[in-house]
């Protein structure tokens, strides 16, 4: 039989190869499961069922993706027939062998489609996962019921409860896929159809759930729930997976009802907000059509902890890196620090030996400014002192090319003052990394007063290559993140003075979803740096402005945090506990100001902190520092531990019942 092309819908086509129908989903960019794709799959199944000459089916995706999941355009919209569970049921019920050829990512509903097939072949580069919990929902087309039948309950709890994806090798070891095809995924799938022809199809939904060890189940549950921090979807996913041994129809009905209920929850609404916010963040006013400059070599000035982290991120993105430090000894230490981080990546499997060797070969260090001459971009990561940074930029201005870009990593200093000290302020930009820079996803890209559009575009392009979430901010002290964090910290200190205690505030924040309370974070980071900054600001502080001295009293008493054994808490044998000495210091400070303390509920604490963050956020919007509320939310989620399932401070403040 000659190959013939068939159009099942605008996004699904078929090719008859011999006696097998190859169904190709072609819905760029990620072959999302739109209504048109679903109807196309139904039409393809009807064709296969009604054509006696068709031996079986292969379902695959065009391009480099099998199916990337749901169509985001349908988020929050009424369902459109045919709904995905019904489509997958028809795939599974087909009497002819149906093989999924996973040519690339199979995520969410894409993996559920593959689970409905009778056999799964994957390329070695394919990734699979059910990430629905990251959107505040559970799989809604059989994922919680079919996956446990293939890989067992503990492994299914791990994958569905965490939302993580697995590569083909792990998927094959788990039993999620049947075969890895290093060359020709479709060809391997065609061969599988011929082997399976004439046999009863192996329907995943009819398999028995493998017997399991209850201790393994409890271990998997504990691990997932410990990270859930108040989210509802992971717990519901676990419940559904644990009950997968019941008849498929019963489990599917429960899963669908749970999916629909969670989809309407505030948690899911918050996650959808974050999802769309990340896509909106890349849209920057005045930059449409502005091409970035070519960047191949990045200089890093200052090879301490921050500079080394930036270097590792740049090497991992394929850049050549030239590190600069004050003398040969410091440069050599910086090189060892960078290689140490790369070794850790090698040890943990993030990179292999080939990648390690390539990254090491792209790294050089120096103590001579002139050696940065080949750089297309130089990022300074030296001590956060204005005079130090201005001196460095003046020196760099003389040795790098006129078209090279200079970036400052300052957290609080004014980059416009730094830029003004150079001959070409239009080539200066802020790139505010978060520590550790090779791990933290957030990058504030600071548009200075005279930054050229193509320089800003280059900063964003580099951020994307570094796999950072780039948020553009204007110039103000602390930019977006530290401005909001300062308001948050200030309000927390007001709460202390008004009657709350550190452990009460921390407990309220952790119950809300923060990974760690504010005062515990202070102790972990150390109190001395913020104390030094407060002392520098004392001479310019407005005497009419409310100022809380409690933190100063702690520092004066030598309570500098966890490393000192005491801070906001005491740390006997390294374990955090409430310290009555701190309670007494707080009481003394209240008395000195004649403050009559009152008690606060956890809700009152969180509401006050949210209101303070949102008020500062509105000021940043009014002043043009932040472009949109959602950018502020992304900064606080990705840089400061704000719980994503609450949507960020701006979203949460707008959706908190009053």
UniProtKB/TrEMBL annotation:
<keyword id="KW-0511">Multifunctional enzyme</keyword>
<keyword id="KW-0520">NAD</keyword>
<dbReference type="InterPro" id="IPR001753">
    <property type="entry name" value="Enoyl-CoA_hydra/iso"/>
</dbReference>
<comment type="similarity">
    <text>In the N-terminal section; belongs to the enoyl-CoA hydratase/isomerase family.</text>
</comment>
<keyword id="KW-0576">Peroxisome</keyword>
<protein>
    <submittedName>
        <fullName>3-hydroxyacyl-CoA dehydrogenase</fullName>
    </submittedName>
</protein>
<keyword id="KW-0442">Lipid degradation</keyword>
<feature type="domain" description="3-hydroxyacyl-CoA dehydrogenase NAD binding">
    <location>
        <begin position="297"/>
        <end position="473"/>
    </location>
</feature>
<feature type="domain" description="3-hydroxyacyl-CoA dehydrogenase C-terminal">
    <location>
        <begin position="478"/>
        <end position="571"/>
    </location>
</feature>
<dbReference type="InterPro" id="IPR006176">
    <property type="entry name" value="3-OHacyl-CoA_DH_NAD-bd"/>
</dbReference>
<comment type="similarity">
    <text>Belongs to the enoyl-CoA hydratase/isomerase family.</text>
</comment>
<keyword id="KW-0456">Lyase</keyword>
<dbReference type="Pfam" id="PF02737">
    <property type="entry name" value="3HCDH_N"/>
</dbReference>
<keyword id="KW-0560">Oxidoreductase</keyword>
<dbReference type="InterPro" id="IPR018376">
    <property type="entry name" value="Enoyl-CoA_hyd/isom_CS"/>
</dbReference>
<dbReference type="InterPro" id="IPR006108">
    <property type="entry name" value="3HC_DH_C"/>
</dbReference>
<dbReference type="InterPro" id="IPR029045">
    <property type="entry name" value="ClpP/crotonase-like_dom_sf"/>
</dbReference>
<keyword id="KW-0276">Fatty acid metabolism</keyword>
<keyword id="KW-0443">Lipid metabolism</keyword>
<dbReference type="Pfam" id="PF00378">
    <property type="entry name" value="ECH_1"/>
</dbReference>
<dbReference type="Pfam" id="PF00725">
    <property type="entry name" value="3HCDH"/>
</dbReference>
<keyword id="KW-0413">Isomerase</keyword>
<dbReference type="InterPro" id="IPR036291">
    <property type="entry name" value="NAD(P)-bd_dom_sf"/>
</dbReference>
<comment type="pathway">
    <text>Lipid metabolism; fatty acid beta-oxidation.</text>
</comment>
<dbReference type="InterPro" id="IPR008927">
    <property type="entry name" value="6-PGluconate_DH-like_C_sf"/>
</dbReference>
């Amino acid at each position: 039989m000659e190959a013939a092309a068939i159009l099942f819908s605008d996004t699904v086509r078929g090719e008859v190869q011999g006696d097998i129908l190859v169904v190709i989903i072609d819905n760029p960019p990620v072959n999302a499961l739109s209504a048109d794709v679903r109807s196309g799959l139904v039409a393809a199944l009807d064709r296969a069922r009604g054509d006696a000459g068709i031996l079986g089916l292969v379902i695959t995706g065009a391009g480099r993706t099998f199916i990337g999941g749901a169509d985001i355009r349908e988020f929050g919209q009424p369902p459109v027939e045919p709904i995905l569970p019904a489509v997958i049921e028809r795939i599974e019920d087909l009497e002819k062998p149906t093989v999924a050829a996973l040519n690339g990512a199979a995520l969410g509903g894409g993996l559920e489609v593959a689970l409905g097939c009778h056999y799964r072949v994957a390329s070695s580069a394919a990734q699979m996962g059910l990430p629905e919990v990251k959107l505040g929902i559970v799989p809604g087309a059989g994922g919680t019921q079919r996956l446990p039948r293939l890989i067992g309950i503990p492994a299914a709890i791990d994958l569905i409860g965490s939302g993580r994806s697995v590569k083909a090798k792990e998927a094959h070891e788990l039993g999620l896929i049947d075969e890895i095809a290093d060359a020709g995924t479709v060809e391997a799938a065609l061969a599988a159809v011929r082997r399976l022809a004439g046999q009863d199809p192996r329907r995943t939904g009819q398999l028995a759930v493998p017997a399991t060890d209850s201790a393994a189940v409890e271990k998997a549950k504990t691990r997932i729930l410990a990270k859930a921090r108040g989210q509802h979807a992971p717990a519901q996913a676990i419940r559904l997976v644990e009950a997968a041994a019941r008849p498929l129809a019963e489990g599917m009905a429960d899963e669908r009802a749970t999916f629909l209920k969670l989809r309407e929850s505030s948690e899911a609404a918050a996650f959808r907000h974050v999802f769309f916010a990340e896509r909106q963040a890349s849209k920057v006013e005045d930059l449409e059509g502005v091409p970035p400059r070519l960047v191949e070599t990045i200089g890093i000035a200052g090879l301490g902890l921050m500079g080394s982290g930036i270097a590792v991120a740049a090497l991992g993105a394929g850049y050549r890196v030239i590190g600069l430090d004050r003398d040969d000894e410091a440069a050599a230490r910086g090189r060892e620090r960078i290689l140490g981080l790369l070794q850790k990546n090698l040890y943990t499997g993030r990179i292999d030996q080939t990648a390690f060797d390539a990254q090491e070969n792209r790294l050089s260090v120096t103590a001579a400014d002139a050696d940065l001459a080949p750089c297309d971009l130089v990022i300074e990561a030296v001590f956060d002192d204005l005079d130090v940074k201005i001196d460095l930029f003046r020196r760099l201005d003389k040795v790098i090319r006129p078209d090279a870009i200079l970036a400052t990593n300052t957290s609080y200093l004014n980059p416009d003052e730094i830029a003004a000290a150079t001959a070409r302020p239009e080539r200066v930009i802020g790139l505010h990394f978060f520590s550790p820079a090779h791990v933290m996803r957030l990058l504030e890209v600071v548009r200075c007063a005279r930054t050229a559009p193509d320089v800003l575009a280059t900063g964003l392009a580099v951020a994307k290559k570094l796999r950072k979430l780039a948020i553009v901010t204007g110039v103000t002290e602390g930019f977006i993140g530290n401005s909001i964090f300062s308001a948050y910290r200030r309000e927390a200190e007001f709460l202390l003075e008004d009657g709350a205690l550190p452990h009460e505030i921390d407990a309220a924040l952790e119950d809300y979803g923060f990974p760690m309370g504010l005062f515990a974070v202070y102790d972990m980071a150390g109190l001395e740096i913020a104390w030094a900054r407060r002392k520098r600001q004392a001479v310019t502080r407005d005497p009419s402005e409310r100022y809380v001295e409690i933190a100063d009293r702690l520092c004066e008493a030598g309570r500098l945090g966890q490393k000192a054994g005491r801070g906001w808490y005491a740390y006997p044998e390294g374990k955090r506990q409430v310290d009555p000495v701190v309670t007494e210091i707080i009481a003394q400070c209240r008395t000195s100001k004649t403050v009559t303390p009152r008690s606060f509920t956890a809700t009152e604490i969180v509401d006050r902190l949210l209101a303070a963050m949102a008020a500062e956020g509105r000021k940043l919007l009014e002043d043009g520092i932040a472009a949109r509320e959602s950018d502020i939310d992304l900064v606080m989620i990705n840089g400061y531990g704000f719980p994503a399932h609450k949507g960020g401070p701006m979203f949460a403040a707008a959706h908190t019942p009053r």
